[in-house]
Specification:
Helix content is 0%, strand content 66%. The chain is an all-beta fold and 98 residues long.
Amino acid sequence: MAELFEAVEAETPLGGRTRALNRLGRLWLTVLSTRRSEDKPGEAPPVGSAESLAECRSDPRLTEGRWVRMGGADWRVVHAEPDRPRLGRMTLRLRREP
């Protein structure tokens, strides 16, 4: 079970930006695989990230840029491919960054 969110950005009174996640609903999700990687940009400390491939029932709310919360972590929908691997299902590529 996972929850689907949409990011909403707004400007603060002091001119900064804030982002809140608006809950859109729940969905059933099966994680097929997860790959972890680490990137070291120049002199900065390494930054870890994870990518997952998941399958769920087709849902028009699942679009790129939305967020899925599962297992206590927020994952960004990087790519959503409808009717894969079969009709009525969709394949999602999710990314989690610190």
